[in-house]
Amino acid sequence: MNHCSAESQKALTLLKTARGQVDAAMRMIDEDRYCIDVSKQVLAAAALLKKANLVVLRQHIDTCVKDAVNTDKGQEKIEEIAMILERYLGD
């Protein structure tokens, strides 16, 4: 996997933004802000984490999985993706 790709940078940006939103939610709790406002901030961070995960998974499919399939070693990568999807859909 090319960890310096544009997609990796996109995932990193999403994660940093999510971290900022989590920090903001924590400050809001410390400041005893309105619960619904805190909840909205947490939901926004969760949505960014999901987006970042999808970017990472798409990159994994486009690189690692394609390479493995082309060298007849794809079954392990397919199982990894299936495991992630089970976890993702199970929550």
Account of the 3D structure:
By secondary structure, the protein is mainly α. It has a single domain (6-90), classed as Methane Monooxygenase Hydroxylase, Chain G, domain 1. It has helices at residues 6-30, 35-70, 74-90. The protein is elongated and about 55 Å long. 8% of the residues are buried.
Residues in β-strands, percent:
under 5%
Largest sheet composition: none
Global structural class: mainly alpha
β-strand number: 0
Q: Mean pLDDT score, rounded?
A: 92
Distance between the termini: 27 Å
What do we call the CATH topology?
Methane Monooxygenase Hydroxylase, Chain G, domain 1
Total of DSSP H or I helical runs spanning 4+ residues? 3
Give the domain tally: 1
Following the backbone from N to C, one meets helices and strands in this order, namely HHH
CATH H level, superfamily name: Metal-sensitive repressor, helix protomer
CATH class descriptor name? Mainly Alpha
Topology (SSEs and partners):
Layout: H1 6-30, H2 35-70, H3 74-90
Helix pairs in contact: 1-2, 2-3
What features would you highlight for this structure?
91 residues; mainly alpha; 3 helices
Quick overview:
By secondary structure, the protein is mainly alpha-helical. It is built from three helices and no strands.
